[in-house]
Amino acid sequence: MSAVWGMTLRGAEALRVEVEVEMTGGLFVMTLVGLPDVAVREARERVRAALRSLDIPLRGRIAINLAPADIPKEGALLDLPIAVGLAVQGEVIPPCGGALFLGELALDGRLRRVRGAVSGAILARDLGVPLYLPRENAPEVSLVDGVEAYGVPDLASLFRHLRGEEPLPSLERSDPPEQIYPVPEVDFQEVKGQGQAKRAMEIAAAGHHNLFMVGAPGSGKSMLAKALRGILPPLSREELLEVHRIRSTLGLPFDVSPLPPFRCVHHTATTPAVCGGGSRLQPGEISLAHRGVLFLDEMPEFRRELLEAMRQPLEDGCIAVNRASGSVIYPSRVLLVCAANPCACGYYGDPKVSCRCSATERRRYAKRLSGPILDRVDLHVAVPRLTPEELLSEEDSSRESSAAIRERVLAARERQRSRWGSFGYSCNAEVPEKLLRKSMQLGPKEKAFLREAARKHMLTGRGMTRLLRVVRTIGDLAGREELALPMFAEALGYRKDGNPWMNA
Amino acid sequence: MSSRTPQELGKEGERRARIFLEEKGWRCLGENLRFPRGEIDLVFLDLQKELVFVEVRARSVGILQPPETTLGPRKLKSLLYAARCYVSRERWQGYWRIDLVTFLVRGSSWEAEHFEDITGGMLS
User: Fold this and answer.
1) Which of A175, A213, A383, A425 fits as disulfide partner to A430, beta carbons 3.0 to 4.6 Å?
2) Å between B97 CA and nearest CA of chain A
3) What pLDDT shows up at residue A504?
């Protein structure tokens, strides 16, 4: 009996699977037990063909057991451990107990890319064993610290390595490249007017605060959202690992740049597509946008059920996907950016164009956005239609470029990291209120201001916390540790009550 | 030569198949073994000491189908059954398989072809 380890995915988590192989005399037959799904059951044909390509014939009765027997196994990544188990049992290679193998086999013995390599690397590190995986997966795994990993091109070279004939090179840990910014799709320099929205974007990027833009059609909401992408601070190594762990679960291509994810969701999206689900408990868009931006354009058009489902993950930073097949927790710390028109015709509140909606229609439109969701948004900002003068204004060098804004954002994020890093937080939006209050000494003037604001705007407990977080970020952007009254006033201006359009 | 009856053709095929495999160094253990639900033309022990049951098929040219296509699923099933009977009767512990040897008869020339492990591709 020989034991070789493989893995199966449960959400983003890798579970160790022990592959046991028994061969006895008789007519050739291969049975596979241990709740394999169709892809795993079909592994028999791939494994047999791959071994045959190395002149290793399979004979007799072969029983393959995937332990633990009560966990469903999924995916083609068990091909490699099965092939290795068979080769060990057939004494083609020496026993190699205590190694994790993952990979899909081609019929000629090559290894194909698999889903979940990052989770596998984390599992191998926790088990303290070497990891063998397809060479195409190697770049993802190089992000994980302290794992002895080998990128394997094909079965033959793996067997040569395990026999000690021709060792494979171990993968080096690689750092994500520093600060390589591609030219953003939209530079802030190209955005005309919209000073307030630009400032709100800067605050959102610096502190990872949710943002809601209201404005007439064509006023530049989507353009601003695209421009936001160019000023987001790059991800740290740990954050990048979190992001790629989720991406690799879905088998999405690996991208080495440390840019935060930017996921744009269309309003026809279903709840499982955004929040996660399906029979394989896949992560949804909100988890794919973890540590980055989730952009919901035309927010009132989204199905209400979907918006309500996003309440809890937005607050807690993680989402539990519970289905009959099991339950998984995915991270969902997103910067939510939403855009909406002020009313159905789009011109309510416009100084020139008159709105054609009746009061009832306006109320119905505004009602599509529930209070609890809007309460989770820190920055509400109006994006008005541009005046003809603004529209025709030439390229203006006095307008700030994305690069200049990004520099301030990076400096502000650096202040946050140095302040909260020892507590395990990286930006203001994550910090719990208790810690936040302890760090900001409120003078009597500020306290009176907040009391007045809370009374006048009916601030909820959460509203107050979020207000304080925004104040903190404004302070960080100004490069100052102590907070002044104008910062409180600015932050309050971004609350939803400060926005007349949403009070329709 | 076309005057040969199918029975004669089959007998001659088995004789030639035995010679054909013995020339490869295999050892013959039995011929024409009958079981309640199937029979085995030849039983051999190959060079790796693996037990091999051999089915022999011979066909003369003129019939469109090549001989290997004449082995249907029902015949395969009865072959498997007979082979299992033999294995349990002889208390054989090692590996075993079923091979097919075909002959294409062209006048006086017999073209032999050997198919190894014909049930191997069938996974339960």
Assistant:
1) A425
2) 5
3) 40
Would you give the DSSP letter of residue A378? S
Searching chain B, which residue's CA lies closest to the CA of residue A42? B123
Dihedral-angle region of residue A123 (phi above 0 means left; psi in -120 to 50 means alpha; beta otherwise): alpha
For residue A1, what pLDDT band results from cuts at 50, 70 and 90? very low
- Helix/strand/coil (H/E/C) assignment for every residue in A216-235: CCCCCHHHHHHHHHHHCCCC
pLDDT at B38 over 50: yes
Q: Which of A346-350, A417-421, B83-87 has the lowest mean pLDDT?
A: A346-350
Of B83, B84, B117, the CB nearest to A28: B117
Could you tell me if A401 and A188 are in contact, meaning their C-beta atoms sit under 8 angstroms apart? yes
What pLDDT, on a 0 to 100 scale, did the predictor assign at position B122?
A: 56
Domain ranges of chain A: 2-162, 188-424
B95 touches chain A (CB under 8 A): yes
Do A2-162 and A188-424 show the same overall fold? no
Annotation: CATH topology of A2-162? Ribosomal Protein S5; domain 2 (3.30.230)
Nearest CB partner across the interface for A28, out of B84, B94, B97? B97
Nearest-CA distance B85 → chain A (Å) = 12
Side chain identity, residue A71: I
**Cβ-based contacts under 8 A for chains A and B:** 31
pLDDT at A95 over 50: yes
Q: What is the pLDDT of residues A371-384, one digit of tens each?
A: 788 888 889 988 88
Asked if CATH classification 3.40.1350.10 holds for the domain at B6-115, the reply, yes or no, is yes
Q: A279 falls in which pLDDT band (50, 70, 90)? A: confident
Chain B residues close to A26, C-beta within 8 Å: 87, 95-96
Neighbours of B88 (CB within 10 A): 9
A145-203: pLDDT as tens digits:
888 999 999 999 999 999 999 888 888 777 666 656 677 778 888 888 888 899 999 99
Count CA within 13 A, CB hemisphere, residue A500: 4
Enumerate the residues of chain B whose CB falls inside 8 A of the CB of residue A27: 80, 83-84, 96-98, 119
Contact between B117 and A25 using a beta-carbon 8 Å cutoff: no
Name the DSSP letter for residue A350: -
- Per-domain residue ranges of chain B: 6-115
How far is it, in rounded angstroms, from Cα B9 to Cα B44? Answer: 21
Does the beta-carbon distance from B94 to A29 stay under 8 Å?
A: no
pLDDT at B121: 59
Q: How far apart are CA A489 and CA B107, in angstroms?
A: 107
Model pTM score? 0.82
| Average model confidence (pLDDT) across chain B | 87
Torsion angles phi and psi, residue A272, rounded to 5:
-65, -30
Q: Which of B93, B117, B123 sits opposite A25 (nearest CB)?
A: B93
User: Which is more confidently placed, A7 or A457?
Assistant: A7
Task: Evaluate whether ipTM surpasses 0.85.
Answer: no
Q: Which amino acid type is present at position A55?
A: D
Instruction: Tell me how far the alpha carbon of residue A145 is from its chain's centroid.
Output: 20
Chain B contact probe: residue of A28, A31, A55, A64 with most B CBs at under 10 A:
A28
Considering the domain delimited by A188-424, tell me its CATH architecture.
3-Layer(aba) Sandwich (3.40)
Q: Report the distance separating Cα A246 and Cα A265, nearest Å.
A: 17
